[in-house]
Write a structure and sequence with these properties.
heterodimer; A: mainly beta; seven-stranded mixed sheet; four-stranded antiparallel sheet; 0% helix; globular; B: mainly beta; 11 strands; 52% strand
Chain lengths: 119, 109
C-alpha cells in the first residue's frame, strides 16, 4: 500500500525557516517524480514544486522560487521541502504527492502538514 | 499557462441524486483532466484519470466526460459517504507543472 506521511509543520514567524519531510513507503521511491502541493485556508490547491527521480530536475511555482528548495534522499525514501524567508501567505496545509509512472499526473497524496506563518 | 475554472464551489445533494461538477480549461488540453476526492483529515483519492477513465478500485457510480476544454465529473446515485471536497487537476509537460480547479464541496443532506 502506498503511503506518504508528512511531518515538520508548525508555527513560524515571518522571515523564519522550516523543513518539511515526507516519508514514503509501499513503492519504489527512487522510480517516481515527487511533488509538494499546498492549500491555504479557504483557498484552492496550489502546486509548489516537483523533483525528478534522481533529483536532477526541479521545478517551482514562481511565488516560492529562491525561497523554497525541494530535495530527496532515495536511500531514506524521503522527500523534503526547505522553506526559507517565510511569509504570511505561505500559511497552508502542505501535501506530499507522488507523480504517476505512466502519465505524469498525481496519483497518490499524503494527509498534509500545517504550516502557519505568524508573529 | 492553462487555468481551470471549476463549478460550483458548493453543492448540496440528497441520497440517490445525480450530481455534475464542471471544470473548464482556458485552452485545449485534450484529455489531460483528472479528478480527486478529499475528505477532511484524509489523503486525497484519485478517482478519474485522462478525463474518462475510472481509477481501479473506485466505485462505478463515478464517471468522467469531456475533451478539449469542457469536462464533467458525474456522481450517480449519491450516497452519504460521497460527502467530500472534489477537485480537478491538469498538468503541463515541459516543464512539469500542475494546475488545479478551485474545488467543489459536496454536502449530502
Amino acid at each position: 500500500e502506498v503511503q506518504l506521511v508528512e511531518s515538520g509543520g508548525g508555527l513560524v514567524q515571518p522571515g523564519g525557516s522550516l523543513r518539511l519531510s515526507c516519508a514514503a513507503s509501499g513503492f519504489t521511491f527512487s522510480s517516481y517524480w515527487m511533488s509538494w502541493v499546498r492549500q491555504a485556508p479557504g483557498k484552492g490547491l496550489e502546486w509548489v514544486a516537483n523533483i525528478k527521480q534522481d533529483g536532477s530536475e526541479k521545478y517551482y511555482v514562481d511565488s516560492v522560487k529562491g525561497r523554497f528548495t525541494i530535495s530527496r534522499d532515495n536511500a531514506k525514501n524521503s522527500l523534503y521541502l526547505q522553506m526559507n524567508s517565510l511569509r504570511a501567505e505561505d500559511t497552508a496545509v502542505y501535501y506530499c504527492a507522488r507523480v504517476g509512472a505512466v502519465t505524469p499526473t498525481i496519483d497518490y497524496w499524503g494527509q498534509g502538514t500545517l504550516v502557519t506563518v505568524s508573529s | 499557462e492553462t487555468t481551470l475554472t471549476q463549478s460550483p464551489a458548493f453543492m448540496s445533494a440528497t441520497p440517490g441524486d445525480k450530481v455534475n461538477i464542471s471544470c473548464k480549461a482556458s485552452q485545449d488540453i485534450d484529455d489531460d483532466m483528472n479528478w480527486y476526492q478529499q475528505k477532511p483529515g484524509e489523503a486525497a483519492i484519485f478517482i478519474i484519470q485522462e478525463a474518462t477513465t475510472l481509477v481501479p478500485g473506485i466505485s462505478p457510480r463515478f464517471s468522467g466526460s469531456g475533451y478539449g476544454t469542457d469536462f464533467t465529473l458525474t456522481i450517480n446515485n449519491i450516497e452519504s459517504e460521497d460527502a467530500a471536497y472534489y477537485f480537478c487537476l491538469q498538468h503541463d509537460n515541459f516543464p512539469l507543472t500542475y494546475t488545479f480547479g478551485q474545488g467543489t464541496k459536496l454536502e449530502i443532506k
